[in-house]
């Protein structure tokens, strides 16, 4: 059995939903996991924020209603198909508007309707075409989570609950399960974090011992770089788990950074495929990659994380070096700020974060007695990844001279602890220039690629 996850663009229009139905029906009883139609989660959350500022509930709901309505019309489905969901959303927006208060818990509840509507629509289209499918809310497929709203994780009982739910389905019936969402022990809706449907799919696959996880999206696999940034990016036919995990962690949005973990633990291959061109091979992610799929020993891909901030914390000498690092990280952790690239010296600690100014200001205030904190906004983290990189001499030199030749100044460097990446920070304004030059050097220039 395989688990097939379809992302937002795959379920975002009538023709693509029809395409999804054909792809699903060509497989022997898969578990199907769906995201909200593209832009719907953003619309749901924006509506919630509007309502929290006292906006009109009908106005807050309008973009989602229009978007989903258009889908129903294009698919020839009844216009009242989503009446229950629309009514529930209106109630929620009214409540938020009345109270002027918006918690993470309420945001999760509101966001969940995007996936709920997708599951119903996809199951209906499959059934209308002669298949047997039912929409299943994630909590009816075992997704019990902790109560960490906005970033929930499954509880230890979840996997067994998923197996029980799968076994209880009517014979031959394909479940179309909502990605991204779950429910905590008290029955409250949670979400796994933005882009989390990939993770839902891999958790279900691990629980059921699936043969393969298929992530169906709008590109033909994981590519050497985001094709929106580098038009010449090409598909990577094979990647190792470690490479895919690093690329995802450092910003390759095509996979949620946590997707790979359950797959690795359960030894399940992950395939990334294109809903728009299903005949394309896609990318297969395995524990180890056969040498014939490697062109050289250099990087296999470049990931980019934009709109990062670079924080420098300079000690005022009140703490020794060890106490200083521990204190700084402790304060930022307490404020919920994740730290990515780190560089240290005797008196200074620099690192990159994705956090807003307000949170950083609060952390800086807490450190005021022992350190001076400065923040540089509009930075980008660029990361080159490849299993072969750990054994290849001179790569860092080539990476940095390529950036230098392109006129890009490098601000911070880190050789990833896993040794399969080299990561550095540049000004966001320089990021495209740097990435295009590196892509041209490592992936478009044949002599450089073979040298790698
Ligand atoms: P979905 O809605 O299917 O989950 P996403 O938008 O989350 O799709 O991910 C697909 C997008 O990821 C692509 O359209 C592409 O712009 C972006 N992307 C970023 N890095 C890469 C990469 N290395 N390879 C392929 N796509 C990438
Ligand atoms: N719909 C959710 C989001 O937009 C989850 C997902 O698409 O994976 O973040
Ligand atoms: Mg995604």
What do you see in this structure?
It contains 14 helices and 17 strands. By secondary structure, the chain is of the alpha/beta class. It binds adenosine-5'-diphosphate, aspartic acid (ASP) and magnesium ion. Adenosine-5'-diphosphate binds at residues 7-10, 35, 195, 217-219, 222-223, 225-228, 247, 252-254, 301.
How do the strands of the widest beta sheet line up side by side?
3-5-2-1-8-10-11-9
Count all strands and give the number.
17
pLDDT < 50 runs, ≥5 residues: none
Oligomer: single chain
The structural class is alpha/beta
- Mean pLDDT reading: 94
Number of structurally distinct domains: 2
Backbone shape: globular
CA radius of gyration is: 23 Å
Largest sheet report: 8 strands, mixed
| CATH architectural grouping of the largest domain | 3-Layer(aba) Sandwich
Task: Provide a short characterization of the protein structure.
Helix content is 40%, strand content 22%. The protein has 14 helices and 17 strands. The protein starts with a strand and ends with a helix.
List keywords for this structure.
VC0802-like; 22% strand; Carbamate kinase; alpha/beta; 17 strands; single chain; 8-stranded mixed sheet; binds aspartic acid; binds adenosine-5'-diphosphate; 2 domains; 14 helices; binds magnesium ion; 6-stranded antiparallel sheet; 452 residues
């Amino acid at each position: 059995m395989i688990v097939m996850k379809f992302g937002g663009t795959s379920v975002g229009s009538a023709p693509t939903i029809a395409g999804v139905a054909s792809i699903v029906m060509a497989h022997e009883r898969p578990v199907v996991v769906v995201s909200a139609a593209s832009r719907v989660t953003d619309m749901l959350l924006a509506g919630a924020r509007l309502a929290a500022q006292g906006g009109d509930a009908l106005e807050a709901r309008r973009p989602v209603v229009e978007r989903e309505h258009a889908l129903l019309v294009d698919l020839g489905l009844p216009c009242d198909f989503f009446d229950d969901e629309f009514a529930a959303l209106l109630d929620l927006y009214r409540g938020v508007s009345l109270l002027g208060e918006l918690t993470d818990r309420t945001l999760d509840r509101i966001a969940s309707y995007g996936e709920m509507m997708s599951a119903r629509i996809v199951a209906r289209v499959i059934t209308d075409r002669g298949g047997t499918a039912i929409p299943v809310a994630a909590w009816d497929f075992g997704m019990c989570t902790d109560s960490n709203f906005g970033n929930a994780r499954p509880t230890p009982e979840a996997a067994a609950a998923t197996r029980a739910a799968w076994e209880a389905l009517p014979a031959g019936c394909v479940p179309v399960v909502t990605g991204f969402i779950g429910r905590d022990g008290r029955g409250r809706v949670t979400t796994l974090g933005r882009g989390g449907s990939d993770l839902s799919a891999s958790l279900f696959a691990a629980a059921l011992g699936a043969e393969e996880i298929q992530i169906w999206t709008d590109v033909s696999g994981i590519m050497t770089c985001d094709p929106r940034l580098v038009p010449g990016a090409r598909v990577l036919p094979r990647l190792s788990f470690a490479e895919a995990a690093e690329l995802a962690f450092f910003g390759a949005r095509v996979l949620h950074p946590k997707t790979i973990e359950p797959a690795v633990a359960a030894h399940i291959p992950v395939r990334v495929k294109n809903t728009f061109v299903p005949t394309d091979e896609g990318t297969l992610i395995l524990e180890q990659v056969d040498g014939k799929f490697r062109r050289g020993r250099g990087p296999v891909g470049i990931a980019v994380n934009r709109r990062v901030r670079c924080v420098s914390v300079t000690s005022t000498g009140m703490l020794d070096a060890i106490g200083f690092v521990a204190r700084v990280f402790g304060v930022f952790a307490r404020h919920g700020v994740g730290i990515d690239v780190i560089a240290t010296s005797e008196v200074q600690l620099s690192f990159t974060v994705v956090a807003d100014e307000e949170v950083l200001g609060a952390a800086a205030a807490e450190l005021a007695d022992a350190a001076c904190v400065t923040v540089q906004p509009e930075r980008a983290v660029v990361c080159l990844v490849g299993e072969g990189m750990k054994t290849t001499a001179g790569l860092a030199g080539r990476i940095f001279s390529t950036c230098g030749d392109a006129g890009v100044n490098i601000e911070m460097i880190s050789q990833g602890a896993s040794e399969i990446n080299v990561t550095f920070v540049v000004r966001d304004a320089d990021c495209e220039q740097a990435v295009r030059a590196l892509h041209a050097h490592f992936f478009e220039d044949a002599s450089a690629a073979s040298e790698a």
